[in-house]
Amino acid sequence: MKNLPTQVPTDIWVTASWEDYIEIVSNSFYEKGKCYYHDGQLRIEMAPVGYDHSSDNTVITLTVSLFGIAKNIPLTGLINCSYRQQGKRECQPDLSYYLGVVDVEKVKLLAFSVSQEDTPEITQSRILPELETNLLEEALRRSRTSNQTEVGTWLMQQFQGK
Question: CA–CA separation, 76 vs 88, rounded Å?
């Protein structure tokens, strides 16, 4: 860790080599953090996961899973799985899905579009084109005042009506 401080700043991207990244994430101080590495940059997020974040993750899982069920799309959901391309990149998304045959080398699903210049938001999944982000946002809004069974019932009505 030639040019990095002893304690790496969190919640921002920091320039680092892959070797520095591996050394940092091996430190027990960061074991509860979410660590990312991409194109010579590392990021560590140490924010605690509270009720709202956990509830939102559950509603998102429910939404995508019910969509797959309603549309007969084979999905495999994974919570807090680490993905590493040795020497190049790593991330630990809250939730990720494989579509069809589970093949780590070929299938990935992102809720945003990634390009060299920026990370533009999208309003519709490119992998699940009928799953619009506004439907997911409405499910999250409903989860603030309804239980997850009620939200799931509403979602199934939306999916079956399409």
Answer: 25
